[in-house]
């Protein structure tokens, strides 16, 4: 297995794990859904979990890896508002929770870079 294919498998695993947790632990995600989105937060929690699972499947399969990597980059950009919401909401929490909330913000850039790198992986 080449390094890039290994990166694709790791990215697919990360996305699949994140997607599953949206269904297993939706109460964690509901509060960070930006309040500007219409409808109930649980809808967006489940929708984003389903999107992560679909993108994970696309990244895992060589025939759809390019599109899956591009979709993963878009997904990572799209969830940035939720991370901003979490950082704003957790600014008065304890130092550990604040570090988690603030730490998620700069992670989006390397995740987007990783997804774009995977999109360039040859099947």
Automatic annotation (TrEMBL):
Superkingdom of origin organism: Bacteria
Full protein name: Putative membrane protein
Organism from which the protein derives: Micromonospora palomenae
């Amino acid at each position: 297995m080449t390094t890039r294919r290994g990166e694709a498998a790791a990215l697919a695993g990360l996305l699949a794990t994140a997607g599953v947790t949206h269904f297993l632990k939706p109460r964690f995600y509901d509060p960070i859904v930006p309040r500007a989105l219409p409808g109930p937060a649980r809808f967006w929690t489940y929708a984003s979990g389903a999107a992560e699972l679909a993108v994970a499947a696309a990244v895992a399969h060589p025939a759809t890896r390019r599109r899956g990597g591009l979709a993963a980059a878009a997904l990572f950009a799209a969830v940035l508002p939720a991370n901003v919401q979490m950082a704003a909401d957790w600014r008065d929490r304890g130092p550990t929770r604040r570090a988690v909330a603030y730490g998620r913000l700069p992670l989006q850039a390397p995740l987007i870079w990783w997804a774009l790198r995977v999109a360039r992986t040859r099947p």
